[in-house]
């Protein structure tokens, strides 16, 4: 079901190098969209998962930073928290037509995340929306790691 997707940056020679450079990679999935995010800690992991999700939607490099939005989520555990965090951005994309490219995590516990996201409203003249994400799913969701870094796999319903 999982396989490494094509690298977006031709300067990078392997998908492992790509993950280290960007903090995420797009995975091929049979029916939906999927990413693998990494981070030296959980804050970076959550930020990189959001970056990866928006790379699935459009090219991150096309998104400016003309607005900032405080975003928070809470859930029963770390995995559910990642889903809730990402679904906050799905909502902002769907309802307010905002794309984000940079994420700063201010507070993070096992059950709560608070952060700030930077982006801009969708401009269909500049932003090619490749994939419309309906929601973040629990299917195949995993967060692994510890002291040497974290890795998450996330599948999005498209």
Describe the protein.
With 158 residues, the protein is an alpha+beta fold. The protein has one domain (22-157): Archease domain (Archease, Possible Chaperone, Chain: A, domain 1). Helix content is 27%, strand content 37%. It contains 3 helices and 9 strands; from the N terminus they run E-H-E-E-H-E-H-E-E-E-E-E. The strands form 2 sheets. Strands 1, 2, 3, 7, 8 and 9 form a 6-stranded antiparallel beta sheet that branches. A hairpin with a 3-residue loop joins strand 5 and strand 6. Helix 2 (42-57) packs parallel to helix 3 (78-96). The longest helix has 19 residues, at 78-96. The radius of gyration is 14 Å and the shape is globular. The chain starts with a strand and ends with a strand. Mean pLDDT is 88; it is low at 1-18.
């Amino acid at each position: 079901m999982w396989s490494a997707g094509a690298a977006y940056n031709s300067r990078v020679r392997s998908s492992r190098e790509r993950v280290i450079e960007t903090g995420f990679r797009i995975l091929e999935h049979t029916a939906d969209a999927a990413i693998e995010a990494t981070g030296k800690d959980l804050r970076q992991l959550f930020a990189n998962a959001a970056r990866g999700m928006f790379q699935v939607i459009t090219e991150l490099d096309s998104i400016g930073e003309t607005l900032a939005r405080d975003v928070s989520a809470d859930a029963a555990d770390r995995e559910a928290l990642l889903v809730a965090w990402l679904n906050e951005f799905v909502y902002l994309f769907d309802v307010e037509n905002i794309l984000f490219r940079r994420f700063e995590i201010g507070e993070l516990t096992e059950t709560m995340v608070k952060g700030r996201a930077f982006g801009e409203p969708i401009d269909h003249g500049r932003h090619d929306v490749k994939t419309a994400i309906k929601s973040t799913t629990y299917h195949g969701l995993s967060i692994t790691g510890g002291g040497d870094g974290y890795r998450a796999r996330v599948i999005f319903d498209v």
